[in-house]
Give the backbone structure.
Amino acid sequence: MLHQGKASSKIRPENLQESVSVSNGVAKIDAADMHYRELNAKLRALNGNGVKQIELRNVYGQRYIGTDLKENINVDIYGIPGNDLGAFMRGPIITVHGDAQDGCGNTMDEGKIIIHGHAGDILGYAMRGGSIFVRDDVGYRVGIHMKEYRRKKPVIVVGGTAQDFLGEYMAGGILVVLGLTLKDGERHRARFVGTGMHGGKMYVRGEFSHPAKDVKVVGLDAEDREVLLGIVSEFCDYFGYDVKEIMAYEFNKVVPISYRPYNNVYAK
């Protein structure tokens, strides 16, 4: 487990500006040895008070960064944030200049998380809006319980590959896996892809070795390609890839076979 820093028994309002400098709407916080509660208290104090951008330096595993932030604010994180980055977030854009741990975007509602590295397990758990872009690989159970409602359609884009149970119980949204870290001709090794999936869709550059029995793999139509092009173009803008080169490869679409896969096990 990464270092969490020393706990503070009480966060006093008069101490919120310690280790914080603000200039021209940009706040800079040195998070070295700072307990996650103190760090998040500072973020909430700055949010909505005229600050448009926050730079967090020396982040070493502090949890819940960006949790429940509601304003349109940009947060740049230098280091490795801890679990549940951006949980319940409603609007901000968080950019991680490094890797992220587990539970990133947990029940996220709106906004963006952009990760210049790897991300851990259960990325986007129960995510219901906004988008997450990961440059490299991700862990297990990514996109589990993703859902969509009316105008909100969450999007997760993985630049590399994923581990087992990708899209488990997925109920809505779009999950894109680009496989940019795979060798030529190498398949995605994730097993049980789409287990219990009953909504949404996945776009996969390449093929999975072990899709679940709950899904089917089909080709893309013109509407799929238009949607995918927009998503991949945004990914390339963040990470410097060539969109034409990525889109030149074959993609497959993974969709659920049934929208009620467990109907036959319910009591009548």
